[in-house]
Amino acid sequence: MMKIRLIILSILFIQAALGAQDNSSMKKITGGDFVPLYGSDAASVSVADFMLDVYPVTNEQYLSFVEKFSKWQRSKVIRLFADGNYLIKWQNDLAFNPESLPDAPITNVSWYAAKAYCECQGKRLPTMDEWEYAAMASATEPNAQGDSLFNQLIIEGYETPRTYKNKVGSTFKNYWGIYDLHGLVWEWTSDFNSVLISGESRKDVDTDNNLFCAGGSVNASDLMDYAAFMRYALRGSIKANYCIQTLGFRCAKNLKE
Fold it and tell me: Which residues lie closer than 8 Å to 205 by C-beta, 6 or more apart?
């Protein structure tokens, strides 16, 4: 029975990925309460309604950004805001790698650069809770946290090599109409380093924050959510100026009053 459910879920993923791409750049995520892996003393946290990009930002979109804002070009960026891996595979300031697809996700960009990009679009980076809330949706359910087969497929996507070379929209469309939250690239959030976990307690106050790595299980809400552990581990191990080949971003926005 479990094998049949896994096959059905896989078919849903493939069908959604092969479907026509949504022309709208953002989708509304209807807020609600959910239980994150870390980050709250309460049983759940509340997420307000917000807008989220349907796809991660692409190479082509980021190229347009650096053409307009030269301080974020590879040769001009201040190293305080981006390490030596910033756009490292681009041919030059105004040409990305010819082997990269224009509609593949932009990677090797820092948190500072991602934040600046979103702000220049009149948007912002999603918070960690917003990202996790949107990402817990499967193709058919707004909250698939309890679906072990959905979580298994997420893990399989994380284990697939070089997915950052694929074009955006190549993974499944979730319940909210959002693509690529799993199985393409990791994504920056505005408060990626807000959950710090030590071997004793995430509330330790006398430990150097640079030593934290969010791989511990203390105070985790679900010890079986291995995919979430991987995401929090990554977030807890990086700094804002890091530029990583498998790390991209997308933008969010508050709903208008």
Answer: none
List the structure tokens of 131: 């990202």
Return the bridge partners of 186, or none. Answer: 247
Residue 203: both structure tokens together? 């509330």
From the list 152, 135, 153, 155, the residue with the least C-alpha distance to 143 is 135
CA angle, corner 63, sides to 117 and 94, nearest 5? 130
CA distance 7 to 9: 5
Per-residue pLDDT tens digits for 122-179: 999 999 999 999 999 999 999 998 888 888 889 888 889 999 999 999 999 999 999 9
Q: What is the C-alpha to C-alpha distance for residues 80 and 240, in angstroms, rounded to an integer?
A: 9
Indicate whether 224 pLDDT > 70.
no
In angstroms, rounded to a whole number, what is the distance separating the alpha carbons of residues 182 and 35?
A: 19
Count CB-CB contacts under 10 A for residue 254. 11
Whether the model clears a pTM of 0.85, i.e. scores above it, the answer is: no
> Cα dihedral angle (169, 156, 43, 212), rounded to 10 degrees?
-100
Taking the C-alpha atoms of residue 166 and residue 19, their distance in angstroms, rounded to an integer, is 16
